[in-house]
Specification:
Blueprint: H1 2-12, E1 22-25, H2 38-46, E2 51-52, E3 55-58, E4 64-66, E5 89-93, E6 96-100, H3 108-111, H4 139-153, E7 158-159, E8 162-163, H5 166-171, H6 177-186, E9 198-200, H7 204-210, E10 217-221, H8 235-238, H9 241-248, E11 253-256, H10 276-282, E12 286-292, H11 315-324, E13 329-332, H12 335-341
Parallel strand pairs: 1-2, 1-13, 2-7, 3-8, 9-10, 10-11, 11-12, 12-13
Antiparallel strand pairs: 3-4, 5-6
């Protein structure tokens, strides 16, 4: 237990960084189980993940639900449930017209009747065998998974929740921030040393959270575009030395798309690393990159194996290259392979 406490203090406070990056299980071991399920999280922990990630959207009755998007037609069996057929609709989410079924149109009790499905069945065909086995989780259930694993393993397993579409949810009468702070307080996850990293692509929610809690915050940064709540501020501007200093005023981490750290040329081959990691560290920020996956379709050209998009390439080698850039954490769908790359 002493080792676990020391590890947590090193990883989540301003203490000296450990030699190896953290491995954050992106939606669990989502390369091998349907994402955001108990099966995916428990496998990720077994494979050596330091952190598990839940994406958070909201139910009709204001509960934080663990789904990649509020549209759940592709990640649950809702489309095959005749009692919910009339809830299929079209909405505009962050400027994108989307048709399907949405968490905010279901109570928690209704969502709990659904079962998870593989989101990428054409790429991850083996995962389809696990369709229908796991219910949808809430945020507090994911925290309990991490805490139970910490007690069982003697390791400090953290959580890295991402607040999804907070401006959209506020616009439909489901503001996230007050409810999220209340949830964090109930779960005792507001302190500077709490085993949590709170992520968001938007800026305002993180700025406001920084004034209310001391828990570590991470500014997500896309390869292009701008935050939904700050269209005047591009992600490219946010990762300049000046932009990173501004991020450091409210966040402890910057979380860029992996291609912003190791760019790719027109053929998809890796080029020399950018200065982003060094610039972020100079601004006092830690760096976590997203998302490293084993399939050829997601890897840089030089790490691919064969021509099949779904075949696995040299992800472990890619992780070693990323670690050499000095990143502090790596999101991956394949925690075991990521861990292999660090040895």
């Amino acid at each position: 237990m002493i080792r676990a406490i020391l590890t947590a203090l090193i990883l989540f406070t301003g203490a000296p960084a450990v030699a190896q990056p953290l491995i954050i299980a992106h939606r669990g071991a989502s390369g091998e189980r349907p994402e955001h399920t108990r099966s995916a999280y428990e496998l990720a922990i077994e494979q050596g993940a330091d952190v598990i990630e839940p994406d958070l959207v909201m139910s009709k009755d204001g509960v934080f639900i663990d789904r990649h998007e509020n549209e759940i037609g592709g990640t649950t069996d809702v489309a095959s449930r005749p009692e919910y057929a009339d809830r299929k609709t079209t909405k505009t989410i962050d400027g994108v017209s989307t048709t399907g079924w949405f968490t905010e149109d279901f109570t928690l009790a209704e969502l709990k009747t659904l079962r998870a499905r593989e989101r990428l069945p054409q790429v991850r065909t083996a995962n389809v065998a696990y369709d229908g086995r796991d219910p949808i989780l809430t945020f507090d259930e994911v925290v309990e998974i991490a805490r139970a694993a910490s007690a069982r393993t003697g390791r400090s397993i953290a959580v890295a929740p991402e607040l999804k579409h907070p401006t959209y949810f506020a616009g439909i009468g489901l503001p996230m921030e007050d409810a999220f702070v209340a949830e964090l307080e109930r779960l005792n996850l507001t302190g500077a040393d709490a085993p949590i990293i709170i992520q968001c692509f938007e800026v305002g929610p993180l700025e406001r959270l920084s004034r209310r809690i001391e828990a570590p915050l991470a500014q997500l940064v896309g390869a292009g575009g701008a935050p939904q709540d700050r269209p005047d501020l591009t992600y490219a501007q946010m990762i300049t030395p000046e932009g990173l200093k501004a991020v450091a005023a409210y966040a402890a981490w910057v979380a860029p798309d992996v291609t912003l750290v190791i760019p790719r040329d027109a053929q998809g081959r890796s080029t020399a690393p950018s200065s982003l990691v060094a610039d972020a560290h100079a601004a006092g920020l830690k760096v976590v990159v997203w998302t490293v996956r084993a399939e050829n379709v997601f890897l840089p050209l030089e790490r691919r194996s064969g021509a099949l998009p779904a075949a696995h390439g040299d992800m472990a080698g890619y992780v070693r290259t990323l670690a050499d850039t000095g990143v502090d954490a790596i999101f991956s769908d394949f925690p075991a392979l990521a861990r292999e790359g660090l040895h």
